[in-house]
Amino acid sequence: MNKDNGFPRDGADGDGDESADALSADALSADALLEATADALLEEELRQAAAVFDPVPDFLRQLALEAYALHDLDARIAELTFDSLVDALPVRGVTDAPRMLTFRAGALTVDVEVTGEGLIGQVLPPGSARIEVLGGPGAARPVLVDTLGRFISDDPPSGPFALRLRTGTEVIVTEWLRA
Prior knowledge:
Mean pLDDT: 79
Largest sheet: 10 strands, mixed
Radius of gyration: 26 Å
Order of helices and strands: HHEHEEEEEEEEE
Distance between the termini: 65 Å
Number of helices: 3
Structural class: alpha+beta
Helix content: 25-40%
């Protein structure tokens, strides 16, 4: 039925056959996909042209990196209160024990286990939080946190790393450590 006047559309008998609508919806999604692909290709061509004809000077790129480093200037630093490499007694017979870390910032505690497979941890007290694993000049890797404050990262840190926690009211950054 035509929603505008209550009468059946041309070629429609009004019995609920929506195959023409489904075909037109598929055509619209295909057109939208083609348009998005064309836009992405054009954007990449423009990016390459700008890199050739008007490159960003090295000093400006360095200045941007330094300015970005200050974006968490008001973040609280979570102090390392336990490191199993320093504080724990070695266990005889265990050759590849995971590294256990505890960070504390006020009432917030973050426990992290660092293994060759990644990171496993928990934020206490549990609550909504977003965690990012920082690792040098590369992009931060987001990690999902469940309702109990638990998180897992399947990507083991290589080199120095830190964690950035965003709670509802504040940003907390751990000390940088080598994995």
